[in-house]
Amino acid sequence: MKIEKRWIISFVVISIVCISGLFWQVPLEPENVHSQFGTIDQIIPADVAWMLTSCCLVLIMTPGLAFFYGGMVGKKNVISTMLQSFICMGVVTLIWVVVGFSMAFGEPLGIQIGDGFYSFVGDPSTFTFMDYVGVLPHKEIAKTVPFMLFALFQMKFAVIAPAIITGSFAERVRFISYLLFICLFSIFIYSPLCHAVWYPTGILGSFFGVKDFAGGTVVHMSAGFAALAGVIVLGKRKNSNHVPTNIPFVLLGTGMLWFGWIGFNAGSSMEANGVAAMAFGTTTTASAAAMLTWIFFDRINGRKVSALGACIGAVVGLVSITPAAGFVSVPESMFFGFVAALVSNLVVYSKYLKGIDDTLDVFACHGVGGIMGMILTAIFAHGEDASLLHGGWGVFGHHMTALLLVSIYTFFGAYILFKITNKIIPMRVSEENEIIGLDLSQHDETLFPIECAE
Question: What pTM was computed for the model?
Fold first, then answer.
């Protein structure tokens, strides 16, 4: 059997990365960055316990997303679709350890504007191979838990972001080219955006004042606009009409996502405190409101109440409340879920989105849900001058400017990365392989006996 060079290169790369760990000199003292760290007695055990739990909750979201997407696609593409989400736990984890965390939370690289310094990305060499990332807390971004725990928590966010994108181009992408794309996306889009929003001197968070409690901008908008770019580059499927294979998979995946989202949002408080409890409440309530809004809105538009619709609505609610989970009240969170469900539902059934063949409506759910969450956060976030309704006209204006900038950066950045990936390794499978299905053509596996799959 002839082995393609691209797979040999892939094996060589992973070999170099893993073997180099044996020879990497781990610094004993945090020399140039020692001033960033606190002491062991500043760690609060309750916060550590909660953040360990939150890490596990967020991790379960990626397998949950695999079931959520896997149940929606046609019977010939279930395994391939699920694997595209699942594999992110391997690929992105290593990228995060080697360079991603440094680019997201390393020494800031940016510009001086007046009296302030605003950064765009972290120095890739700061925490390479997790140098200096250990049991001590960080004085600015992880004050009461080990810095390693903070890095692991943030890793789970980085893992699920590219996994979300996969639903847009399901049933037509070559697996090896997809692996290359998620590497590029994690390095050039996710990590810089994460730094810009969440690092203390990040330009979107400090200069524009963007409020993103748990990733509505960083995770969902970036994934949503990347998904839109992907379907434009890859084009429509040969046969875009399919029946979802396994609705119980979708229900299971939704349950896992909802369960994990508690850690996603409430864990973003970084402490076991009242803000975490409030985020728990707003997350649950927004999802419930969106789920019911979606199915009732479907019904008055002549569509039957469906389990699939209930699941999609629930996820849209979770997406919309994510940027505001710790900034708004529980009653306000119901409005978040209600509005986001209405807008996303209208976009899902729009002629334009159907025309470009976003397979699982990723942009309509995550992109639009993230946009609505960001807008509503800028309107309702509590605190003096924190939002439009609390005297923060400037904050609202900055949010809208940042929304535009993030949309442009993530869409065109992903578009360029898709083009680069496609140039190196063509992303579309052949028409023959698309007809056979990606389960068999890419992985030689099938959910059903071969005679059924055919």
Answer: 0.94
